[in-house]
Amino acid sequence: MDVRSDVRMDMRSDVRSDGGPVTRTELVTGDLDEAHGYLCRTYVGHRPRFSGDRAAFRFRAATADEGRFSLGRMTHTLGTRLVTEPRDFLVVVCVLDGAYAVEAGRDEARAVRGGFVALPPGGPAHARWPAAELGVVGITRSALARAALEVLGAPVTPLLAGPLSGERVRRWRGAVRFVSHELLDEASGAAGPLLRAEAVRLLSAVYLTTFPVLVGDRPGPNGTLPAAVRRARAFVDEHAHRDIGLTEIAEAARTSPRALQDGFRRVLGTTPTAYLREVRLDGAHLALRAADPTSGDTVAAIARSWGFAHLGRFAAAYRDRFGRTPRETLRE
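== AraC family transcriptional regulator ==
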């Protein structure tokens, strides 16, 4: 059967930008709302749908959160599809058993047992898994940015990637194991601020040399982006579901609207407002895929929630982008 939960919470708001003593949480439950309330508080707000025997559901999770990074593990026995709220942290998912897939914008990554998926910070994502056991590592955007300047001497833009496995992630596994066993293991005692800072640098540095990122501050043949354009895209990715326009985007990019428009046209061949429209279409697409028309979800309501007031124009733009109508996606 397909069951939809009403659990919906804002993404975690208590992230400590300078870190702090490690907070450990655990939960074992057979209650879906309790399980996804825990996931919302620990990671990011989301609205899930489930398939399988709800009466037989079992959930087990444990997380150690330092503020700048977190390590967690969970077992979830139902097939799950969910759309997340925007995130200000990157996530690396290790599939310990089962499978995991995620879509962000136009890109998709998936992995099976033994594989990894890296999900960058940014706008809504559509994740799904059958019954699965997952290891999850989170690193805040600000922590990775500081490490990028130390390790690479330049800002970076993390990319969606997966499946990654084998030798490519051997060092990542080693770094996570070291941090987990040497610094977060309760038997080793409470790690002090210097050890915690070293753990942040280690995880971030190994991430930067393991998973794909765009590096640099100026446009070039390898696809790097100028700082203002990169800041603008990150702002739009994270806030597209809010009431923003060119003025707000330019303020976040720390430049003028005219300069930002020129930069977008020169580097990306589009404009900031056109990019905002594309991100909103992606968000509406993910929301339609996760929606349930039998529970009252409608194309009009989802379109309005993503800033599309005119349903006809939304439907035409959606069909041009995805090759099907919004109603067809909703009914899939």
